[in-house]
Design brief:
Layout lengths: L4 H16 L18 E5 L4 H13 L3 E5 L8 H8 L6 E4 L4 E3 L2 H13 L12 H12 L17 E5 L4 H12 L4 E5 L27 H9 L6 E4 L4 E4 L1 H11 L3
Parallel strand pairs: 1-2, 5-6
Antiparallel strand pairs: 1-3, 2-6, 3-4, 5-7, 7-8
Helix pairs in contact: 1-5, 1-6, 2-4, 6-8
C-alpha cells in the first residue's frame, strides 16, 4: 500500500524532530547485556523527558516493556500511580533490582551505571537546552503521542523493533501511545558505519553485512532483513513492515 501524501509529510516532520534531538538514539554506544527480566517503562511518546530515557535504551541496546500513559489515559496511568505514588512520567520499574525511579536524569544515570557499567556520557546528560529542543520537536509533530484515544485492549503485548530516532518508527510509537497499546520495544540501533542510511540504501554498497555478534546480526538471521519499524502482533499473528501499513493496521484493528 503506497503511503499517502499526508504520511510523507508526517515523515518529514518526524525527521525534523529527530534533527532537533541531534539524532540521539540512533546508534548503540555500549551494547549492554539484556537483563533476565525486562525493564518496564511507563511512558508518553511525545514527552521530551521520556524521549531522553528511550534514547538511552537505544544507546545501550536495551529492550523494555512500554506502557503508554498519554494524557487522559485510563489504562496504565493508574497502574503507574500505584507503583510510584504519583502520576509522573517517565517511570522506570526494574524488577531485576527492585528499583522504581522517576525523573529522567536519575533514570538515565541508573541505566548507564547498572547496564552500561559506566558514567552517563555527556551527549546523554540532560541539560537546560535539551528539554526545550525536545519540546519543540513535539510541537513540530503536532503533539502526537500525548493524548489518549479510545481503543480495544489486546490480551498480549505487541512487539516493535525500532530505534529511538527513526522517523518512521516514531510515527508508529505515537499511534501505539495514543491507543494505549502496550508493547515490547526491541531496540536495534545502528552498530557500525555500514548501518547508516535507510535499509534500502546503505552507505556502503554491496550486500549488507551486520556487525558480527551484534543484535542486527541476530535480527537478520531471524527475519531475513533489518528494517524498522517492524511490528508483530501475537494476538492476531500479524507481522508488518512499513510505518504506513502498521499505522493502518492499528487503526483498523484497535481504534474505536
Amino acid at each position: 500500500m503506497p503511503a499517502s501524501p499526508m504520511h510523507q509529510v508526517d515523515v518529514i516532520r518526524s525527521t525534523l524532530a529527530s534533527t532537533l534531538s541531534a539524532w540521539r538514539g540512533t546508534r548503540v554506544v555500549n551494547a549492554a547485556t539484556q537483563p533476565r527480566k525486562r525493564l518496564r517503562l511507563y511512558d508518553m511518546e511525545g514527552s521530551p523527558y521520556c524521549r531522553g530515557v528511550r534514547e538511552v535504551l537505544t544507546a545501550l541496546g536495551l529492550d523494555a516493556e512500554i506502557y503508554p500513559c498519554p494524557q487522559g489515559g485510563k489504562r496504565y496511568r493508574p497502574v503507574a500511580q500505584r507503583l510510584g505514588g504519583k502520576r509522573q512520567f517517565p517511570l522506570l520499574v526494574d524488577p531485576n533490582t527492585a528499583t522504581t525511579l522517576y525523573e529522567s536524569a536519575d533514570i538515565i544515570d541508573y541505566l548507564f551505571l547498572t547496564y552500561g557499567q559506566q558514567q552517563t556520557l555527556d551527549a546523554y546528560r540532560p541539560g537546560k537546552l535539551r528539554p526545550v529542543l525536545g519540546g519543540l520537536g513535539s510541537v513540530v509533530r503536532g503533539l502526537r503521542g500525548t493524548k489518549a484515544r479510545p481503543a480495544a485492549r489486546p490480551k498480549k503485548l505487541l512487539e516493535l523493533w525500532s530505534f529511538e530516532s527513526s522517523p518512521y518508527s516514531r510515527l508508529v510509537r505515537e499511534r501505539l501511545t495514543e491507543l494505549e497499546l502496550a508493547y515490547v520495544l526491541h531496540n536495534i540501533g545502528k552498530e557500525q558505519w555500514a548501518d547508516m542510511g535507510p535499509a534500502v540504501l546503505r552507505v556502503r554498497p554491496g550486500p549488507y553485512k551486520p556487525r558480527p555478534g551484534g543484535r542486527r546480526e541476530k535480527v537478520l538471521a531471524q527475519f531475513g532483513r533489518v528494517q524498522v519499524p517492524y511490528l508483530e502482533d501475537p494476538n492476531t499473528g500479524t507481522k508488518l513492515y512499513e510505518s504506513a501499513a502498521i499505522i493502518d493496521y492499528l487503526e483498523r484493528h484497535y481504534a474505536k
